[in-house]
Design goal:
alpha/beta, 29% helix, 12% strand, binds flavin mononucleotide
Length: 489
C-alpha cells in the first residue's frame, strides 16, 4: 500500500477547497478538501452564480438527479445575486435534520470531492471536525458517493466514525451519538441516517475510505486504535503550533503574558511510542519545510501534514486580499499569530493572524452585533422541558444565558461560522451596509512561508510547496517503507 509523504491538511471553511486538493492530489500527494460547513458554502457559491460552471458539472455527475435539480433550482442565481443582497441561509442543523439540510450535505460534499478528483486517478481526502457533529452522517455519505479515498477527523475523539464508514460503504443506515450537555439516562441523543431514504434508482458501489484520526497525544492515539468502532488506518499527530483549532494544554489552563495558553513537557508527544503502534503516522504543526519533512521521515513518520504553507498558495480558497496582506507581513517577518484561548465557541484554543480591520482587531470585534444564523458550533443541551436545545457561546449573550449558558462563557467568543465564510469571499451582508468581518486562522509558521516565493514573485502555487517540501527526501531512509498495518478494532 502506498501512502503519501505529504498530506495537505484540511482547512475549513473552504480554504482547502476542491481546487487546492485537486492540485495536490494530481502531484501524487494527498489533497484534502474541508467538509466543514460545505452546505452553506455551496449555497453561497450558487447564489454567486457558479462562476466557471464547476458546481453545475459536479451536480450533473451526482447519482440522484432529482435531488441535484431541487438544490440547483432553489439556490442558483444566474449572474450572481446583487452584491449588497444577503445570502440565503441553509437550514441550521439539529439532531433530526429536515430533509433539505440533509440533501444539501450529501450534494455539497459529493460535488467538492468530485471536483477535487477530476483529471487524475489519485486519492483525495476530506476533513471534518468531530465537534461539528450534526452534519456528519449525510456529509460523509455524500463524499463517499464521489469516491473519497480518505476521511480525516480531529477536534474531538472520533471513535465512532470508522464504524460509520463501514456501514455507509454498504449503503446501510448509520447512527452517531450526539454529545448533549446534561443528557439524562435513556434520553434519545442518537442521530440516524439511512441512505435508502435519499437514494434514487440503483446505488453505486462504494469503497470504504481510509480513516485517519487527528490527535495531539500518545494517549489519544492509543485510545483511537483500541476503542474505535472500526479500522483506523493511520494517525495525524498535530502539535499546538498548527493553524486552526489546537488541543488545549494538559492540566490547568495557564496563560503567558500575552494571554496565550502555555504548553509544557506533558504536551509533548513521544514519537518512539508512536512507532510501536503499528499504523502509519504523519506529523503536523510546523512541518512545512524541507528540513522538517526530512526530520519527520527520519523519526519514522510516513510523512507530514501541512496547512499554513498551502493556505497561501494560489489555489487555496483564502480571499486574495487577505493572502496578499499576510504574505507581505511574512515577507518582512512581521506577521503575528495569537493563540486565542477564548475566540472559539468550542472552548478549544484557536490560532488567529493579527490583522488590522479584521475580527482580530478589538475595535472590529466590539462593533460586531452578535447573531447566530449558521449554528455549526452550537452546543446541544438538555433543556428543562426534556427536549434538546441548542446554544452557542458567541450568540447574543441574553439568548445564551436564557438557555442556561453561563455568562462568563460568552466573554471573548467570536462567531467563527460567519468569520470563516468571510475569509473565503462569502461574507454575509447585514443591514446598513454592514459586512461580516474575516478572522484568519493560520499556524505559528506564518512568517516562514516566504521560503516558497521565488525571487521577484509575490505568489506561489501548491506545486511549489510540494516540490520544496520533497526537495530533501531521498529514498535511503530506513523508515520510508510502509509500516505493517495492525487492526485494533
Ligand atoms: C487556515 C487553516 C484552517 C484549518 N482548518 C482545519 C480544519 O478545519 N480541520 C482540521 O482538522 N484542521 C484544520 N487546520 C489544521 C491543518 O489541517 C493542519 O493540520 C495544520 O495546518 C498543520 O500545521 P501548520 O499550520 O503548521 O502547517 C487548519 C489550518 C489552517 C492553516
Amino acid at each position: 500500500m502506498q501512502f503519501p509523504k505529504i498530506i495537505q491538511g484540511g482547512m475549513g471553511v473552504g480554504v482547502s477547497n476542491w481546487r487546492l486538493a485537486n492540485a495536490v492530489s494530481k502531484l501524487g500527494q494527498l489533497g484534502v478538501v474541508s467538509g466543514t460547513a460545505l452546505d452553506t458554502l455551496f449555497v453561497r457559491r450558487l447564489a454567486d452564480g457558479d462562476e466557471g460552471g464547476h458546481l453545475r458539472r459536479g451536480l450533473d455527475a451526482f447519482p440522484f438527479p432529482e435531488m441535484a435539480r431541487r438544490i440547483w433550482q432553489e439556490y442558483f442565481v444566474a449572474g450572481g445575486k446583487p452584491g449588497d443582497a444577503p445570502y440565503p441561509l441553509a437550514p441550521v442543523h439539529q439532531r433530526k435534520d429536515i430533509r433539505k439540510a440533509i440533501e444539501l450535505c450529501i450534494v455539497s460534499n459529493f460535488v467538492e470531492v468530485f471536483l477535487a478528483k477530476e483529471g487524475h486517478k489519485n486519492p483525495v481526502g476530506i476533513n471534518f471536525l468531530e465537534k461539528v457533529q450534526m452534519p456528519h452522517l449525510a456529509s460523509i455519505y455524500g463524499a463517499m458517493l464521489a469516491g473519497v479515498g480518505y476521511v480525516l477527523m480531529g477536534a474531538g475523539i472520533p471513535l465512532h466514525i470508522p464504524g460509520v464508514l463501514d456501514l455507509l460503504a454498504a449503503h446501510h443506515a448509520a447512527e452517531y451519538k450526539l454529545n448533549v450537555t446534561g443528557a439524562v439516562q435513556g434520553q434519545d441523543t442518537q442521530m440516524r441516517f439511512d441512505p435508502a431514504d435519499y437514494a434514487e434508482g440503483p446505488l453505486p458501489l462504494l469503497h470504504r475510505p481510509k480513516f485517519l484520526a487527528i490527535v495531539s497525544s500518545n494517549t489519544l492515539a492509543t485510545t483511537m486504535l483500541r476503542r474505535a468502532t472500526g479500522r483506523v488506518d493511520g494517525l495525524v499527530i498535530e502539535s499546538p503550533t498548527a493553524g486552526g483549532h489546537n488541543a488545549p494544554p494538559r492540566g490547568k489552563l495557564q496563560l503567558n503574558e500575552a494571554g496565550e495558553p502555555i504548553y509544557g513537557e506533558r504536551d509533548k508527544v513521544n514519537i518512539g511510542e508512536l512507532r510501536t503502534l503499528g499504523v502509519p503516522f504523519w506529523l503536523a504543526g510546523g512541518y512545512g519545510s524541507p528540513d522538517k519533512v526530512r526530520e519527520a521521515l527520519d523519526q519514522g513518520a510516513a510523512g507530514v501534514q501541512v496547512g499554513t504553507a498551502f493556505a497561501f498558495s494560489r489555489e487555496s480558497g483564502l480571499r486574495g486580499d487577505l493572502k496578499e496582506t499576510l504574505l507581505t507581513h511574512a515577507a518582512t517577518g512581521t506577521g503575528e499569530v495569537f493563540t486565542d484561548p477564548l475566540a472559539s465557541p468550542t472552548g478549544f484554543p484557536f490560532k488567529v493572524a493579527l490583522l488590522d480591520g479584521s475580527y482580530s482587531d478589538p475595535d472590529v470585534a466590539a462593533a460586531r452585533t452578535r447573531i447566530c444564523d449558521l449554528g455549526y458550533l452550537r452546543e446541544p443541551y438538555n433543556a428543562p422541558n426534556g427536549n434538546i436545545g441548542y446554544r452557542c457561546a458567541a450568540e447574543p449573550v441574553a439568548n445564551y444565558v436564557a438557555k442556561g449558558g453561563k455568562i462568563e462563557d460568552t466573554v471573548g467568543r467570536k462567531c467563527l461560522c460567519n468569520a470563516l465564510l468571510a475569509n473565503v469571499g462569502h461574507a454575509q451582508k447585514r443591514k446598513n451596509d454592514v459586512v461580516e468581518p474575516a478572522l484568519v486562522t493560520i499556524g505559528d509558521d506564518l512568517n516562514t512561508v516566504v521560503q516558497f516565493l521565488a525571487p521577484g514573485r509575490d505568489s506561489y502555487s501548491a506545486a511549489d510547496v510540494v516540490a520544496s517540501l520533497l526537495s530533501k527526501v531521498t529514498t535511503e531512509s530506513a523508515f520510508e517503507a510502509e509500516p505493517p498495518i495492525q487492526i485494533f478494532a
